[in-house]
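Translate sequence into structure tokens.
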Amino acid sequence: MQLASFLDALDICHEHRILSKHQVYEHLVDRICAHHHLPISGKGLLDLILRRDEESTTAYSTGIAIPHIRMEGFQDTVVAMTFLQNPLVFDGITVSWVVLIITDKSSSNIYLNIVAALLKLSKDAPAMSALSSTTDGHGVIHLLKKMNIAIKKDVCIADVMIQNPVSINPTSTLKELNILMSLHQVAGLPVVGEGNKYLGEVNILDVLKVGIPEYLMMLDNLNFLTSFEPLEKLFDKQDVIKVSDIMVTDGVFLRPEASVIEAVFEMISHHKRYMSVVKDGALVGVVTAMDILRKVITA
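Result follows.
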């Protein structure tokens, strides 16, 4: 199925006015309710969209916002969109394309794959320029048909993973690792070599373990310790110890085509909150338990 097949020209507009997010959503709702029969419409639908927005951001760094409502008793998928000539700022992200998706409660797969197609499209600057330059919805649909953008039926890890993730080289020091994890607010990083070859992973517990002598790890508890002294080894050696000295090379990773349930199984089995995604030996992404919760379970 093609992305264009989910669209109706009447649900697409190019907005030249300076509007607030609330007004943009309001106009999209008005367009949808004018010719779609929904269990909830008008202000009730608008309130649902705004409440959903408060739960988590709908804006993406590529300049698209994708608000979404899953509606009980609605046996269809409606996609409405607005191209903003005067961009808005959503949660610190400048947005020039707003796409509202309304689906039924059982259509998570369709929704996720529409989102995946939209995100891929939003990264294509020439395509976005062409779409925003059209004069009406018919022109948008015509262009999308020519682009032949397909919507897959099944969700895989490639659809929800973080692409081009932050990674680190095995020759980097613990100090460099600590700075990188702090800067990007992550608790672990993939380790890659030349050509982005996947070598393993390193996380904050691997770092902290450096400051705990082996004999202490053999004790049942450390209640008798009140000094910070054992961890001072971290400060003494963070410029000397390399990532390669502490990284994990257990060979546990995911393929891009892996299913979501496979990813969850691997995370639980190996006590991992995030996993690297590897294709042909190279790192292509990272997926976290929170990504699955936010993008699949609660989507």
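Note: Confidence is low (pLDDT under 50) at residues 215-219.
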